[in-house]
């Protein structure tokens, strides 16, 4: 109980999940993605747009509503959100990254980089790209590319030797333009489901 009280007292709505400085330094010229016009995480192309780590305040900025355009989220309370944020931050390796429209204070895009620690390849790090989504009214304006390239360059910057993702067939071309490749003989996504999410 003491621990719980401590966490709640420390809650700071503008607290970032990870250090935002690293996003400002990403070199978008290292990505094969073509941006027309040119944009980056530091300069996303409009003064009302910002690319940054998840914040606690994003519970009130439509982050979960955005995720519900991707899959079912359930009815997550502020307390649950806060506790998961704290757990992710304490355990490390969770880089939930968002695009905010600061005019409306709404989260309009998101992607997560999860970094796994390995013994193989000389104690390497492997990145996984997950939960990529852009608000449907903002699609087709390079924001999908922007958020995916941001977390992919972040993985490289953090020292990952590779970045992996699972996607629907119709998105293969999209990810290929961003530097991802199907590996012949090694591109079979398999899952074991333990419960019905509905
Ligand atoms: C996939 C998604 C993130 C793309 O976001 P977006 O902001 O529309 O993407 P962009 O504007 O950066 O598009 C980049 C390119 O990919 C293409 N593209 C985007 N979504 C596509 C789709 N669903 N199918 C085929 N091509 C697609 C665009 O035509 C564009 O091509 P261009 O640069 O030659 O014009 C967005 O459609 C989305 O949130 N979809 C629902 C959730 C989802 O499927 N997530 C991915 C799970 S793997």
TrEMBL record:
Residues 49-198 form the N-acetyltransferase domain. It catalyses: D-glucosamine 6-phosphate + acetyl-CoA = N-acetyl-D-glucosamine 6-phosphate + CoA + H(+). GO terms for molecular function: glucosamine 6-phosphate N-acetyltransferase activity. Keywords: Acyltransferase, Transferase. It is an enzyme of class 2 (transferase). Pathway: Nucleotide-sugar biosynthesis; UDP-N-acetyl-alpha-D-glucosamine biosynthesis; N-acetyl-alpha-D-glucosamine 1-phosphate from alpha-D-glucosamine 6-phosphate (route I): step 1/2. GO terms for biological process: UDP-N-acetylglucosamine biosynthetic process. It comes from the Eukaryota. Its EC number is 2.3.1.4. Belongs to the acetyltransferase family. GNA1 subfamily. This is Glucosamine 6-phosphate N-acetyltransferase. The lineage of its organism: Eukaryota, Metazoa, Ecdysozoa, Arthropoda, Hexapoda.
């Amino acid at each position: 109980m003491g621990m719980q009280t401590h966490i709640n007292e420390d809650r700071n709505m503008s607290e970032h999940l990870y250090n935002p400085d690293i996003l400002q330094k990403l070199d978008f010229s290292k990505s094969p993605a073509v941006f027309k016009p040119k944009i980056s995480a530091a300069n996303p192309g409009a003064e009302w747009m910002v690319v940054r780590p998840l914040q606690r305040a994003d519970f009130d900025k439509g982050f979960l509503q955005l995720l519900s355009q991707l899959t079912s989220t359930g009815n997550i309370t502020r307390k649950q959100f806060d506790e998961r944020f704290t757990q992710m931050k304490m355990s490390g390796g969770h880089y939930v990254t968002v695009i905010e429209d600061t005019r409306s204070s709404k989260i309009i895009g998101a992607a997560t980089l999860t970094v796994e620690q390995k013994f193989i390849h000389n104690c390497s790090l492997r990145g996984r790209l997950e939960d990529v989504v852009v608000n449907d009214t903002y699609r087709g304006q390079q924001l999908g590319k922007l958020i995916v390239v941001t977390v992919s360059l972040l993985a490289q910057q953090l020292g990952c030797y590779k970045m992996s993702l699972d996607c629907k067939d119709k998105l293969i071309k999209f990810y290929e333009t961003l530097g991802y490749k199907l590996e012949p003989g090694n591109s079979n996504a398999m899952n074991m489901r333990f419960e019905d999410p509905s």
